[in-house]
Amino acid sequence: MPPRRLLAAALLMGLFTTTAQADEGMWMPGQLSDIAAPMRAAGFRGDVRTLADVTRPPLSAVVRAGGGTGAFVSGDGLLLTNHHVAYGVIQYNSRPERDIIEGGFIAAGRSDERPSNPDFRVLVTVGFDRVTDTVLEAARGLQGRAYFDAVDAASKRIVADCEQAGDVRCSVANMYYGTDFYRIRQLELRDVRLVYAPPRAIGNYGDEIDNFMWPRHTGDFTLLRSYVSPDGRPADYSPDNVPYAPPAHLQIARTGLHAGDFAMLAGYPGVTFRHRTADEFEAQVTRTLPQRVAVFDALIAAVEQAGQGDADVRTRYAAQLQSLKNNRKRAAGELEGLRRSDAVAQRREDERAMLAATPAATRGEIDALRTVLAEGDAMGERDLLLGLVASQTQLMRAALLLERLRLESARPDSERETGYQRRDHALIEGVLRQAQRRYAPAAEKALMTVLIGRYQQLPDAQRLPAFDAAFGRTPESLAHALDTLYAGTRLGDEAERLSRFAAARDGRALADDPLIALAGPLVAAQLEIEHARKRRDGEQLRLRPAYMQALFAWRASQGRAVYPDANGTLRVSYGRVEALSPRDAVTYAPVTTVAGIVDKHTGEAPFDAPRPLLDAIARGDFTGTDEPSLGTQPVNFLTNLDTTGGNSGSPVLNARGELVGLNFDSNWESVSASWWFDPRLKRAIHVDMRYMRWLMAEVYPAPALLEEMGLPAR
Amino acid sequence: MPPRRLLAAALLMGLFTTTAQADEGMWMPGQLSDIAAPMRAAGFRGDVRTLADVTRPPLSAVVRAGGGTGAFVSGDGLLLTNHHVAYGVIQYNSRPERDIIEGGFIAAGRSDERPSNPDFRVLVTVGFDRVTDTVLEAARGLQGRAYFDAVDAASKRIVADCEQAGDVRCSVANMYYGTDFYRIRQLELRDVRLVYAPPRAIGNYGDEIDNFMWPRHTGDFTLLRSYVSPDGRPADYSPDNVPYAPPAHLQIARTGLHAGDFAMLAGYPGVTFRHRTADEFEAQVTRTLPQRVAVFDALIAAVEQAGQGDADVRTRYAAQLQSLKNNRKRAAGELEGLRRSDAVAQRREDERAMLAATPAATRGEIDALRTVLAEGDAMGERDLLLGLVASQTQLMRAALLLERLRLESARPDSERETGYQRRDHALIEGVLRQAQRRYAPAAEKALMTVLIGRYQQLPDAQRLPAFDAAFGRTPESLAHALDTLYAGTRLGDEAERLSRFAAARDGRALADDPLIALAGPLVAAQLEIEHARKRRDGEQLRLRPAYMQALFAWRASQGRAVYPDANGTLRVSYGRVEALSPRDAVTYAPVTTVAGIVDKHTGEAPFDAPRPLLDAIARGDFTGTDEPSLGTQPVNFLTNLDTTGGNSGSPVLNARGELVGLNFDSNWESVSASWWFDPRLKRAIHVDMRYMRWLMAEVYPAPALLEEMGLPAR
User: Fold this and answer.
1) Chain A 196-235, CB below 8 Å of chain B: which residues?
2) Residue A11's Cα: distance from chain center in Å?
């Protein structure tokens, strides 16, 4: 039974009246009418049916903006998103003589609105259609790599046909892991301009120190405006362009929310793993994450040691070191969270009960799926290490990239692997150029020693002859190989890399070099790995739908609907304003106030609240934007809404569908929520629209913009 | 009017019924009958009169123990205090083959109880008598140094007369800054034994990281037992001694407290400055504390730089560096707290109103007091710097100590300054010996450069010719002087110091050395400073009572009593269990539970909860010691009781006088409470007696001790 019908059956049985969904769920808008009862029970006061179509108001006001989400807030294309989502736009317009990152920006009028960086995009969804049968038609009856290739080819065909009409960007979204496919059509607005940005010390108050933290006091918002050509079509920047008239815009609420109040949010969450198998949960907690923590620790130690007593090395590797530490922290936080929530045991118990209620035929497919997943898991550590060889090095990466580009370029452009097509050449050239600034031989050898040294410890089943031949099987042979390679290579010279790039993109042979010579067999080995992965991916695409069907039936029997794991498509979640008690005897209220800005203010970044803000707080005139129950100006608030990366800039709506908040972060305890939603600890952090209104009225006034949004200037 | 009578008048006027004391107050027990009404209004259910006599039950159960407070909890001398107060006793009994610091200790029986380190004392107050007239008799009519000497001589005479009887230690306590004097007689129990100590990871769970922190999860308690000779008199350790029968012991409660419940506490708070003048508050916030922070910062930087690239220097100065950092942190915390509470302005406004209501004659004396205080304040930075020269150096300190000892030793022992009498010789010798381990010439020169360098910047009025002659008035002359001194001195050699010590204690001339030669004029200058200080102290003793009288009258007009600032004598404070909201949107509940121990547990010190504790928490059997409203085992709790250093180990009693908690710390925001009690932020942290009972019943069982305390084994 397809999921929709199972859900409908469950609803008819009245099961939702007793459900305890714990507010988990990133729902496709089309599903909302199926869960109308629990939404209304949670406090929603609008018509659920009007939310179900992404191409109609109000969801048609919610768009992809840069790497996050945005929402139109006026009929003239005014778009609200996060300061951090629009950061590139702000940076692009900042000048030494006028640093608008530090000082903020208010356009003096439409003609003063500043063009964004050329690659910033706003995507308005204009079509969302089920294409499952078309995608799977040729794949049925196939297996493995063939199944993968059939799905891939059908998807590419759908995209090509769809984009033929022009002006739209198309994609195929895979829902429920191969169960359903949707064609998404989006207008690609390329002329986006900066209208209003608060100063850095408001938009990013607290910066890294407060990142993932609650209580929070950040005005993380920016207003942009989308423009189109005079005839209403997407266009590159031109002074002749006119404001885009969006299909809908949201109305900003005059009042705020209190603990327990209904809230909902729409946006483009990136990726979650909630419906993965219990085996995958176990692999994540017992192997993948501990392996990641351990290898990142070793890489961090290697970089730090290479930098000891060498300021030049420290400078070259500063960004990479920071990134390694962030990755390490994220993996450790995810591991800690999954353990705290006992996620593996809970998922295992749920799956055991599900399988007991699943017909034998479906169980047979699920067993086959588990076998494929076990095959991938068995190669997990090797694939992690060799993946890092290609991402954490400079010269080695350059050699692998050049060799792969040479191979791919020998084929017609349309048959080349994604990432090596003609349109990717500029990006590759950029990578090859910047290697210059981020490389030191001792550091790269130290990183390679960590990665290949760990690879050498792996059992034979995970080994590749090409790598063993290149580096031997002992620390001594590895050290000798690296010394020889890095003493002999000329790829440290930018001109040497770029001349080979010119050859590679034409599919020509590459000039001799020790690293290039090595890249030949290593890339061949990587292609073997890639082939094996695509074969397993094909099997997963073929077999996971059985697991999902079992889950739909099991959840229906519990009176619960199933949302697809996040995949960058538009989703809606609902829940409520809720306090957080993350530790024994600690409770954080769900609304912060301007008092906390003063508490945190030290005068030094990132806690250097601007003088006009401090003065306005001291004046204490919060008329019309205050929270009456607190007697002061609210700043941020906290909900239990279900979010993940990509939800930055998502509008938060009240029970009547009015805009009350702007999502911008989640708490540290939520890092593990991409796998497991723990209702005790999962929270999302939002800018209170009353704070934005107060800033725009009282601190850095923009009365015309308030009027445009239908708001009083005070 | 004497304070007692003013208070009585206020009570008759019914003023206390409307008072808002904010629970501030470290009351002398004798005052409690005067504040019976507000105590009863706060929830006290016992008879206030029985609390008024320190020599009768229940306060006679409360004693000085080591550097803190303790309370008898059985008729056989069983004494409850903090793990950190008894730490020296535990350490003294720890052996490599049986590390009872780590593992804890439970005596197998009375014969297994372990003697304390010989200098550990328990002091039982047996007399507390007003001696104001006797102390002040000879001083009346005098001024300055003469007033000081007269008070000093009279006090010494009272002590000598009092101790004639033997077995008691006597002292004279100065209440209300020279207004009243009390003779205190105390039994000095010298045979104190270790009975029960939890493992380090319970008694000091969280260590420095959790110090000053709430929420807290520490079992900071230890049980000792006092012994006396068979005829009942204080005695040194002997196996023939018998348990001491205390005049009273406290009964441990079977139930705990909840938010808002009445609580009271008795103990020996060390020093507070609450009744200092507004000028003194201002000096503390605008000069003294900022000067301390700045000079500690400079000393820390000097030590750290001296240790760069020299592991030996780092080792020698590790303890001093830690101490400097603690002092710096403490001063900065006090400054931050006083500013946060706007203490100077509040004290200034209160004093202004008080003076307006004060008769002119008294105001004249207060003006004179302010002049004396201004004289001291004008020399404040110099006295800070030269005090640090004597405390933060090794060889310079040794030279100053030897020279001063030589001078003092030329006089009869009874006339020597405290600290240089015959009984102090062992301590001085210890200081001179250990100089060896904590000295490096480069580091000491760096410290001297900071201190004298800052001294050189002072205005002429603060300068001393001897110091200018020794070090010149420029950085160059200072560097030259230090190079010459430290190149030439032989005091770095222990034998050289000790041979001079032998001469100095006999008042003989000291063998030649550059530092010794310098110490002559420097000590003479220090004696001048000391004389000026004693003159000012005499004037303060003479004049502060006028300020206190004005304060008594002013507070009486407000319906408020006045407690004397803390001075190490027995005090009682009362208040209630209360949550803490230190920052915007943050609330800490007033009771913690064992769940927090598990939350904090990392397996690594200081968060390495012992396995038996974790297992017992997992078993979850908290019968009889649980908090029913939380459904689990409580650990620590928080009150607004008025405490300061010296209150460690203070018993916390409920409304019926039963023992419910053991005070062991306060929160970071309370660091400034020695000057200003801010009811929003001042909290004290206690071990819940139910946690101690559970540990002794379920985790590290000691059924005989529970029985001795009248408690069920479960």
Assistant:
1) 214-215, 217
2) 33
In percent, the amount of chain B with pLDDT more than 90 equals: 89
Which chain B residue has the Cα nearest residue A600? B583
* Residue B111 a catalytic site member: no
B363: tokens are 């105001």
Taking the Cβ of residue A593 and every Cβ of chain B, the question of whether any pair is shorter than 8 Å is answered with yes
Yes or no, beta carbons of A583 and B215 under 8 Å apart: yes
- The sheet that has B659-666: what strands, in order across it? B571-576, B262-267, B651-653, B659-666, B684-688, B634-639, B591-593
Measure the CA–CA gap between A694 and A711, rounded to whole angstroms.
Answer: 11
Q: Which ipTM was obtained for this model?
A: 0.83
Distance between CA atoms of residues B595 and B616, nearest Å: 12
- A588 touches B: beta carbon within 8 Å: yes
The residue type found at A652 is V
Q: Distances in Å between the alpha carbon of B543 and those of A512, B147, B275, B370, B549?
A: 95, 11, 14, 9, 10
Residues with Cβ within 8 Å of residue A318, at least 6 apart in sequence? none
Residue whose entry in the numeric block shows the structure tokens 């205050």:
A626
Block residue for tokens 């550990």: B120
Query: Cα angle at A274 between A565 and A280, to 5 degrees?
Result: 120
CB-nearest partner of A599 from B584, B587, B599: B584
Q: Nearest by CB to A585, which of B583, B585, B589?
A: B589
* Pick from A21-30, A201-210, A617-626, B582-591: least confident: A21-30
B592 touches chain A (CB under 8 A): yes
Task: For chain B, give the mean pLDDT.
Answer: 94
What residue type is A223 in one-letter code?
Answer: L
Tens-place pLDDT, residues B165-201? 888 999 999 999 999 999 999 999 999 999 999 999 9
Concerning whether B220 is annotated as a catalytic residue, the answer is yes
Residues 6+ apart with CB under 8 A from B679: B22, B23, B24, B640
**pTM across the whole model:** 0.86
A679, with CB counted inside 10 A (0-12, 13-18, 19+), is middle
Q: Is B84 a catalytic residue?
A: yes
- In this structure, what token pair is assigned to residue A48? 């659920």
